[in-house]
Amino acid sequence: MTKPIRRAGVIGAGVMGSGIAAHLANAGVEVVLLDIVPPNLKDSERTDPAARSRFATGGLEKALKARPAAFFHPSFARSIRTGNTEDDLGLLAGCDLIIEAIIEQLEPKRALFAKLEEVARPDAIIASNTSGLRIEGMMEGRSESFRKRFLVMHFFNPVRYMKLLELVAGPDTDPDTVERVRRFGEDVLGKGIVFGKDTPNFIANRIGAHAMMTTIHLMLEEGLSPEDVDAITGVAMAHPKSASFRTADVVGLDTFAHVADNCFNSLKDDEDRKVFEVPAYIRTMVEKKLLGDKTRGGFYRKGKGGDIETLDPKTLEYRARGGDPEVRKAIKGIEQIEDPAARVRALVADQGKAGRFAWKVLSRSLAYSARRLGEIAGDVAAIDDGVRWGYNWDLGPFQTWDALGFTETVARMEKDGIALPETITRMRDQGAKGFYDAAAQKKPTNYDDFVAKNAGTRATYSAEGAMYDVLAGKPSARAIDPRTVPLAWVRRGEKAVLSNDGAEAWDLGDGVLGVTFKSKANSIDADVITLLGQAADKAEADFRALLVFNQGDHFCVGANLFMIAMAATNKDWENIRLTVKAYQDATQRLKYASVPVVVAPFGMTLGGGLELSFAGASVQAAAETYAGLVEVGVGLIPGGAGTLNMLWRALEGIPEGAQVNTLELTTQVFKNIALAKVATSADEAKALGYFRKTDGVTFDRARHLAEAKGRAIGLAESGYHAPAPRAYKLAGESGIATLSMMVDTLVAGGYASEHDATIARKLATVLCGGKGGAAREVTESEILELEREAFVSLCGEEKSLERIKHMLMTNKPLRN
């Protein structure tokens, strides 16, 4: 059970197979990727290994080109070895795990498993990525030993980004096999595990496809358009912005139709079987290859003029994007509500078309989910987690039900004649208030005692009474991994140690002080800057480590641009200078603190957010961190010690006394800043020099806090000492001239504007140590002063102010 999985095989190099292989490689697992030998090879190719493995090699190449990217960085593809299933099955003999992702047909899978039984190690786990075939059928003819080591691992596409991994055990699967895969899925791949039963489409696709098909059929009945439906079933319903039809375009209409068909054909006794019947117009769309993004046209497409057009389901012709004004007006206000539960309540409470349609969709979906309890999953949490992680819903069906009010929703469903299972009416009659106990979702009074008693173990915390066991008809415990508890549970005491309007610092236990921003979009303003300095002082006095850990969709999107725009408009240069110096001082204060400072970026970590990451002794970044110094987009350069620390990161690996041309390293830093390069993963951020190679990467955001805090404790316990300030020899005038020539070439070629060149030349001056003649050793304070003056002078440029105002108004960069 505890044996690690270090080497894996994936058979089938299609979209799913190559995606699984890519993410295994992302996680540091060696991978063998196989596919069949291409049929109809030319005679000259029949003995050519490259030709015979063309499908697997092609699958890997497509994964490398995939957008969104399948790999954290292209270099991870080197961990994958390709081959074919006729010549290279022997390569699987050294694998700990073999995942099958071939065609969804029973006989080819059975034939493959027969071959695998001959080559796989006796302790190797065999898994299928099937979403529709029963384990019993796939295991026909297999030995008892093979059956014990077999289970379904159902990943969701795109594998890198979708958290859900459904595990389904067969009647003979050894519990140790399931536990070994669960640990691998959680700890190595960063997935959220849901245990499903061996039923068609398992949990997420069963509930998700039902909701989607219900929506499609109701659209036709209610006479709404795809735009109307997507407005209602998107953010307002606590679902992704892609909602229903845009999601279908992303997934692919052929894939969506396959999932629905599988349900319709397999679920002979399902009371809602007709819901899964694909409408004729979607069949026609599939026949015409109007499959969505993969064919550049589905429910939506980009027209000749660049405007988005919508397919009319009645005529199957594209038209200009429109929608019902009444629906748009109703949804506009609802979407602004931050709390997902409050949004759903407001949506269903709407008395117009939007509210009526939303209630019809939700009520049928919630009731269907309730009727599936016991059939597809054992508890409400498995269904909720499945659709949240597999479909990116903010709230699962039963969480949505609680948000709408359990008893009120039951009464309204009964009034509408919607069939509910006896388990739900029993809940109501017993006086249950909902599927989850709201009080138990808050930090329990005995949680700190549990942590103290189980420090350093993998013990699971049981939140007693947190969830209602619908099948048993009584409240039950919900198991919680202590590594995934929210920030509110980790904080100690009744109030913050430090607090102002922009940020606060709490005791996180174990000698760690934690700073969290409260500003809009976690932007950096004067209050944030002030508290960072205060937190460093407090941490040095009373704690052993400092952690900067924000909440929300993004870590930090940079400085408060509105504040800069106002000061620049009023020509208040001194105020801008003081603000820039204050943030420089704050980041440098953290950098040289006597206790370790750990920064935990995630999502958008731009401009000042990345500058804050530079200030940490270490970073624990979420895998999906999109980092970059993007100030040139608003006509500026980094002003919070970003140019200094980005450059110092590039130079810090140079051994003492080495004769290195630092201009080459400076040039790369210049390009990254001047071109506003944004890393698309934490590992790419390492490759670009934004994070150190030794910084940590968290695969599962739910464990980000625990792993970041653990890194801070580890640094404190390993004898951390603050670094000493450094000075480096920079290129001076000759370097400025060289970088300026690069800029002139870009302007001459039409790739950059004159104002781009103005910004770039000021950046070059800072990075090369100023206009002071020949190459010389430059101190940090000198670079900081150059950075500060360049930033303030750019604020005085009219075109920079135009860029700032355009960004504030449109959230898009202006090229002027």
From TrEMBL:
Catalytic activity: a (3S)-3-hydroxyacyl-CoA + NAD(+) = a 3-oxoacyl-CoA + NADH + H(+)
Domain 3-hydroxyacyl-CoA dehydrogenase NAD binding positions: 8-198
Pfam families named in the record: 3HCDH (PF00725), 3HCDH_N (PF02737), ECH_1 (PF00378)
Domain of life: Bacteria
Pathway: Lipid metabolism; fatty acid beta-oxidation
PANTHER family per UniProt: 3-HYDROXYACYL-COA DEHYDROGENASE FAMILY PROTEIN, 3-HYDROXYACYL-COA DEHYDROGENASE-RELATED
Name under which the protein is recorded: Enoyl-CoA hydratase in isoleucine degradation
Organism: Chondromyces apiculatus DSM 436
Upper lineage: Bacteria, Pseudomonadati, Myxococcota, Polyangia, Polyangiales
